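ARCHIVE CARD
CATEGORY: sequence design from structure
SOURCE FIELD: tokenized fold
FIELD CONTENT:
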């Protein structure tokens, strides 16, 4: 229905009856158009066209999903042929000392993102090689603290919460500005980096449990896809590739659920782990949103949730109250052009390390500063694109 043509005919002096006859519509409808009442009404033809558009959009979404699944399946077939890392000697289970589990959070690496100093007032410079140096600092700091500083502790296992945004993905045109400018290469390089980190850590802990969850940046659909979206995500490919490369390291256990969140038991305490993009926050403070999540989920689970762990907000934090605790992880990157110009925020790159005791729960917390250390290039020198 061409409303402008009808209005033009009325403005030219034609009667409503003549206009109705000319366009094959009722006179009352012409009256509605003349008075503005029909501005929001749709003709039958318009309704049919709207339904067609919705159908086409739905078919497009299905095609995108199938195409992504096909690409992931093909990529996994290639990944399965990658050479495995040589396993390190597995340390023996020690006796004595204070027995705990160590938990390392690895999220918001955005390892393939490129940030130039000129874009963020000199506060950050970041690319894949710099993220590799920060990865070495993270591993070195984790081992130094758990094996030297806390030498009277007996850490029988290391639990790794790898909860998303390992890649900046393809949304917002990130692929074109990434380190390798190719999402397959970005994903493979990130997986190699994680694999080498886990191999080094596995040489010092009798058992390493790794939980991989996806973040919002790795999605391959325009909007977050709740059913099946956890695996329809480039972060899933990072975890799956890492698992394949580490397949001969017998003391590493991987969990890569097709879900956006997971509850995992550590020393008898339940940790609800997710990326955190669906938790509202302001200036890196998502405490109100986390409390609301607890109030919604607590009645649904038979077992108590003791801790909620998220990333996404790029800010380390720890809040407890009413018998539940909320832990937020930092990021590998201090800031980027969006955070700097739109939000006016920047922070020290950190990842969270903490202990869990069977009687006390989370007993100590240490945000590890990634820019500290010797800035080793041992990972970037070993990674091929």
């Amino acid at each position: 229905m061409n409303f402008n043509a009808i209005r033009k005919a009325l403005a030219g002096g034609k009667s409503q009856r003549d206009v109705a006859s000319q366009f094959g519509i009722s006179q009352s409808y012409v009256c509605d158009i003349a008075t503005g009442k029909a501005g929001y009404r749709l003709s039958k033809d318009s309704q049919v066209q709207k339904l067609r558009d919705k159908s086409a959009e739905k078919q497009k979404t299905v095609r995108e999903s199938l195409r992504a699944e096909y690409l992931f399946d093909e990529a996994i077939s290639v990944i399965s042929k990658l050479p495995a890392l040589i396993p390190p000697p597995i340390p023996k289970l020690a006796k004595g000392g204070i027995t705990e589990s160590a938990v390392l959070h690895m999220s918001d690496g955005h390892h393939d993102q490129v940030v130039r100093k000129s874009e963020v007032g000199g506060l950050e410079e970041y690319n894949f090689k710099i993220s590799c140096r920060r990865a070495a600092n993270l591993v070195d700091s984790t081992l130094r603290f758990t094996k030297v500083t806390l030498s009277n502790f007996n850490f029988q296992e290391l639990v790794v919460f790898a909860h998303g945004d390992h890649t900046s993905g393809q949304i917002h045109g990130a692929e074109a500005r990434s380190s390798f400018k190719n999402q397959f290469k970005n994903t493979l390089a990130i997986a190699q980096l994680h694999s080498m980190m886990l191999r080094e850590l596995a040489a010092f802990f009798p058992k390493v449990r790794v939980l991989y969850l996806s973040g919002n940046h790795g999605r391959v659909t325009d909007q977050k896809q709740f059913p099946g979206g956890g695996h329809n995500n480039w972060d899933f490919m990072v975890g799956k590739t890492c698992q394949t490369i580490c397949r001969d390291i017998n003391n590493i256990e991987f969990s890569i659920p097709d879900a956006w969140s997971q509850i995992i038991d550590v020393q008898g305490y339940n940790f609800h782990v997710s990326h955190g993009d669906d938790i509202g926050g302001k200036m890196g403070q998502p405490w109100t949103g986390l409390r609301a999540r607890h109030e919604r989920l607590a009645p649904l689970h038979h077992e108590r949730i003791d801790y909620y762990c998220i990333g996404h907000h790029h800010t380390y934090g720890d809040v407890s109250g009413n018998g539940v605790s909320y832990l937020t992880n930092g990021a590998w990157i201090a800031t980027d052009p969006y955070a700097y110009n739109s939000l006016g925020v920047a922070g020290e790159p950190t990842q969270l390390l903490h202990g869990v005791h069977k009687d006390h729960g989370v007993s100590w917390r240490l945000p590890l500063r990634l820019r500290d250390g010797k800035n080793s290039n041992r990972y970037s020198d070993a990674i091929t694109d």
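CARD ANNOTATION: Residues 3-41 form one domain. The two ends are 55 Å apart (CA to CA).
SHELF: design records, drawer C
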